[in-house]
Please model this.
Amino acid sequence: MQAIKNFIIKNVSKTFLAYMILVYRYNRKYKNILKTLIFSIKALFHFYAPNKKLLKGTQIRKLFSKVKIEINEEDRFVYNIDIFKTIQRDNRIMDNVTVDYSKILNSSLNEMKKINENMKDCDYKNGQRDLLIGIEEYIDRECKEIEKSNINNKEKLIQYLKSIKDKKAIGFEESIQRILFFNQLLWQVGHGLNGLGRLDKILGDKYEQDLKSGKITRQDAKDMIKDFMKIIHQKFWYKSNVLMGDTGQIIILGGKELDGSYFCNDLTYIFIEAMEEVQLPDPKVFLRVTDKVPRDLMELSLRCIKTGIGCPLFSNDDVIIPILIDFGYDKQDAYNYVTAACWEPLMVGKAVEQNNIDSIVYLTPLTEMLEKEDLDKIETYNQFVCKYKEYLKQYIINFVKELNEITWEEAPLLSLLTDDCNEKLMDVAYGGSKYNNYGATSVSLGTVVNSLYNIKKFVFDEKEYSLKDINEIRKNNFENNEELLNKLKQQPIRYGIDNEEIIDLTNEITGFVDEVLDTQKNRLGGKIKFGFSAPTYIIKAGTSPASFDGRKNGEAFGVHISSDKPSVAYTELIQFASKLDYDNHRFNGNVIDFMITPSFIESNFDKMVDFLILSITLGFFQMQMNVTSSDILIKAKANPKEYENLIVRVWGFSAYFNDLPESYKDLLIERALKNEGKSY
Amino acid sequence: MKVRVTNIQRFSLHDGPGIRTTIFLKGCNLKCPWCANPENLDFKKTEYYNETTMEKGCFGYDIEAVDLFEDIIKDKHYYKMNNGGVTFSGGEPLLQIKALEPLLIKLKKENINMCVETALQVSTELVEFASNYIDEFIVDIKILDKKMCKEILNGNIEMYNKNVELLISKEKIETFRIPLVNEYTLKEENIKNILEFLKKYKVRKVEIFKIHNLAESKYKSIGKKMTKFSEVEDKKIKEVYDKIKKLNINVEIIKI
Model:
């Protein structure tokens, strides 16, 4: 796969590739050939990317000078992305990142320029200098366009933008405008899947000051936040990565403080209320929780979740922070974690760790082993597992090797906003940031656990089949052998249930991967983390053959940490997940995912809040809920026009149901039916 | 001693206070036409075959009562708030209450809240026995007319009344639960009887719910045909709700 990517990167014109991706994304949204054709012609005339021989910072300056600035007079804030202008890339661009907006609010371009002036002369310094000039010029151009427009509060907006040059941000509204300004720059230079960070914490003081001075009311602040959400949602078709809605625009709220107390403020509540009211699939909200989270905050969160927008997602600081510290992150940084784009913990402002770099597919080495080994010679279950581990080890080593073939495009803007790059005079692409680890995700862990358990039961314990015979049936995709298929599928002891043997087996496999990764380093000198939830449960499954868990060729893998068993109690799933080992390298996003109907939450609201609070103290890692019912999904699939605003949770994001490929719709329906105890 | 169980349902939210684990015991002495758990009617094990999933098996397995403890204790963490715990349901769970004793002793020791969901139409001796261990009874109110209770449910209303008296005197009834069926329980005369009954025995809560047709595939899988009933209108449910509310009783419409 990496070889294909490298081939494309090396041989296809970068500008053409960027142009094609843009047209593809447009068509993905509008699904209309004529419209796409017109768009592609328009794009042809407006498309621009600076000469790639220039320093990257200089390229960005040029890019900013060409960006068409359009002021939407309906909006409260100014936010501009010219989708036809981009940067050429010879390498993979760093994405899945959240910059530290508090640094931006509490600093100015002049301060950044001063730091730059004191650097010794080198390409890094010169690129950064040009980038800073480019940002200044962009501000001037944007101010001119505001001046010409009829937007409300133009003086205020101009003042907000100009103050970026030489002042810290002062007010709440100004701070939001400044965040939007830098956010638009990140999108403009191509850093997709970028998060917004701990906005309740970052903006808390500004909000309190303005509230006290009578400059704004609570309602004003909520209206501003709603406008902020709407504005960053506007071009979500362009911002979306693999699937529509996958933008990585995540707002982190709440969290554990160094003294063990729980942080939240009025803004924490306002953000969730705003989310509940705007009813958009993107941006999304992520709530860090601890055993001290206030009950009313959980109630508000559940009310928001109940609307079906799929968030907030809960992240358990009591479990996560100690693991981050053990891994080697500084305590201060660990307590201030955000996520990369979905749920992968990230040290904000200190790292551009590519936390969604690729997925480990546990099934691949199992299939390889079944193809290559003489199965008659495997006489015991232990031998079988040992053999699997041999292949798994080699698979992981090769996986890391492929990761290390990836070269990164220089990213001066990210380097400007990330600690240690200026001191090291090194771009993040070469390991300039404080932390330089990679983060992998993983799929088919449940498939392998269930497969191993079934092999143990039916081949080695009960001796119903020989390994060779059962493998032949599997290879034939269980054709004409529905009986075995059902037996494997219905075998009740499986991944996601509270069973000691299954939990031990899961920990044994992830522990083994952990050990192998402990011996590996990435090309930037960092480690490789991994998590058990991944976005690729359909994509990677498409090319994976049938497996012993009763899965046929190409059928989807399990979604994150979930159970494929019908009607598994939520407490059972949480008990299972809470007993998994997440330490060492195993913390790169571990989200429990379950389906629940709106009426279930409605009729059991208080008990559901109890359940959430008790689940935190039990020790889950992360949790998200997909609130929908099979009835609604089936109707929405049949009559898309009547359900245009139906939002569902997909992997780590929410999306309009209608925007999803059919395979994702079908999987959601299947899971909803199973959850409701209806047969599928 | 062994008990016959059909299902252990964790994260049960409708069968008593807090978050609970419900143990469904096999066998019932009544024959309510709207029964939603037909697999629990007979005490003897019942084979099933699901045509859609091609799954076949048997409802009911025997297990040492005390061995159920392991499953119940799994969610102990979730029982911490609002008196969560275990509920014995069925079928009629009181029919096997004596066999459950070793388990009840163990649960009592662990301070786990115990509920029974019962129609209470069993011998008073069993009720008396159960009341030594069980913290709260959730008692059905179905058909209160003596003759109709016998004819339709195979019930004994005199015994029921005696048992209710007993448990009320011991302050053990937490909730009365009323299934709403147009053709039976919602008959004018029965509702009148129910209201009189509720006036007499005030408990903390009354739950009303309309019966559903969701058990159809279960009936089919055990070779039985489900009697279908007319849809109970929301208006009708509200009427009953209001009438009970008028008696100053905390009433709740639940979905089962």
Q: What stands out?
A: Chain B has one domain: 2-253. The two ends of chain B are 31 Å apart (CA to CA).
